[in-house]
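sry for the spam today, last one i promise. struct tokens for design, 153 residues
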């Protein structure tokens, strides 16, 4: 007969629930997505780097939903699959999907993740709201390395 202590039982239940829970590390957080391809490596140029950094988007994630922090506060959905993050924004005028691949934790100061914009798919019929994001697709950002800087304010 096998004897199981309460401590061991609680430990096993905790492991099972932890393994079954969502691994959504983005939920409840806000990130500024910055072009990392132009980041400078030397400490002497740190001030120049701050002035020349190129901010692409600011996104707030919450349980599968994402909001672009702009004057329109556009919303959509996001999904994490292994080392990929897919962000899709839709409205009556069209949609845009950004796929960030090779998503990895970063050791750089103020940078939570690094990734590559591996795919951009969009269809836009208007000139407002989602169309303001057309610059991402038209500005040669596919293949761009980006960093996710967490907003802690």
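last one done:
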């Amino acid at each position: 007969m096998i004897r199981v202590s309460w401590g061991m039982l609680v430990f096993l239940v905790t492991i099972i629930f932890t393994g079954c829970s969502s691994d959504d590390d983005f939920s409840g957080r806000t990130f500024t997505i910055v072009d990392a391809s132009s980041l400078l490596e030397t400490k002497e140029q740190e001030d120049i780097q701050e002035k020349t950094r190129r901010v692409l988007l600011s996104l707030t994630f919450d349980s599968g939903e994402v909001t672009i922090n702009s004057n329109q506060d556009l919303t959509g959905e996001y999904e994490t699959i292994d080392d990929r993050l897919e962000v899709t924004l839709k409205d009556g005028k069209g949609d845009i999907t950004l796929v960030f691949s090779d998503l990895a934790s970063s050791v750089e100061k103020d940078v939570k993740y690094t990734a590559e914009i591996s795919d951009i798919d969009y269809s836009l019929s208007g000139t407002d709201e989602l169309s303001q994001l057309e610059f991402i697709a038209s500005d040669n950002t596919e293949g761009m390395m980006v960093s996710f800087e967490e907003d802690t304010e």
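The longest helix spans residues 6-20. ok im logging off now
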